[in-house]
Target: J domain-containing protein
Amino acid sequence: MLRKIIPYALLRGKYLRTQSIVSSTKSCYSLPNVNGSFCNCSSNKLIGHLVSVNDSGKISLSANSSPCLRLFHCTSLSSRKCWECGDVLTACDCFCKCGKIQPVGQTLTYFDALGYPHPCVEIEPHELTQRFREVQKRLHPDKFTQKSSYEQKLASDASTFVNRAYSTLARPADRFQYILSLNGYTGDTTEKEKMDPSFLMEIMELNEDVHNTCKYLCNKNPGDPSPSELGERIQKLVCHISGKIEEEKKNVIRLLKESKWKDAQHTLLRYRYFLRTFEQLEARELCWKGAGVSIKLPTGPL
Model:
């Protein structure tokens, strides 16, 4: 009798721990797979577990469905039919084999629209631009002048979606936020209130430095710094702020790849703070040139 009770107790304990794992998984929207790409775990499609006991009394868990959580690439998510010929399509297909353009799929992501098999945290700008141009070639209005008004509307909708996809993915900060949103994390309304006071003080002081340095550019008075002195000050600010931006950017990339969504969202806020400060400095570029100040700005998107 004792031999039967002990396995049952162990089984029940294992079951309760399993239930705890499944329960805690409900707040987890996606995880990286073994290849480093992102997978999505919907809260209503949790992987169930079966508890089994072998002849030796060893308890084990086995999945009753595939343990590989679904990829974002929408070809694995759903299918639909062509409105013209009825052929089966994936959610990513913009055109059917019969040549008819299709409505934008509800599960289509910006990455899908531009041909990426899964969300990419890091994207090479030139490659992104090439993908964008290739897609837009097929959606150009000239290709639909002889088509029905319905097809013209579909092409216009698809083109708008692709434009929005390109605009979002081309800017690192927007791309990072989009990946977070795909994983169900859009940030907390009180997130800014949780920022470290010392960090907010650092940002405030940087903004003051930008303001105090740039005010000499538009209003030249006797005793003000010379153009060369101003150039040195501004260049130092540019290097300091852009360095901070790159540091936070690397942190966001690392956290996203590790699927640490909350930490990534918090770090993304820091990243955006430095970006806004840099944009204030960059907005004075015409004033620099007017004052005879030459500044070297970073190349590529920050």
